[in-house]
Amino acid sequence: MQALVADLLRASSRFAALWESHAVEPQASSRKTIAHPEVGLVTLDCDVLTVAGADLRIVVYTAEPGTAEADTLALLRVVGTQAFSS
């Protein structure tokens, strides 16, 4: 989450202004289990950022580095990018 916020601060002056004014703040954190058609069930941390007074929401799903969930997310980065021939 910290890396995402740092990237957004560098990339967007509007985001930076909202972040500095504390208009953007974490609203909720939870864990969600997702049934993915390629890799099956995966449980991830879910964080929601909101902007006060607006309907903007950023939902971020992450996994703790070094966990099976992190390995599953790494696998999803390549699933569907490979062509198999028979």
Write the topology of this structure.
Elements: H1 2-11, H2 13-20, E1 24-36, E2 40-51, E3 57-62, H3 68-76
Antiparallel strand pairs: 1-2, 2-3
Helix pairs in contact: 1-2
Specify the helix fraction band.
Answer: 25-40%
> Low-confidence parts, pLDDT < 50 over ≥5 residues?
none
Q: What's the overall geometry?
A: elongated
Strand order of the largest sheet: 1-2-3
Structural class call reads alpha+beta
The major pleated sheet works out as:
3 strands, antiparallel
Tally of DSSP β-strands? 3
Number of helices: 3
Strand content range = 35-45%
Description of the molecule:
There is one protein chain. This protein is α+β, with helices and mostly antiparallel strands and 86 residues long. It has a domain at 24-76. It is 31% helix and 36% strand. It is built from three helices and three strands. It has helices spanning 2-11, 13-20, 68-76; strands at 24-36, 40-51, 57-62. Strands 1-2-3 form a three-stranded antiparallel β-sheet. Strand 1 and strand 2 (40-51) form a beta hairpin. Helix 1 crosses helix 2 (13-20). The longest helix is centred in the first third of the chain and has 10 residues, at 2-11. The model has no long low-confidence stretch (mean pLDDT 84).
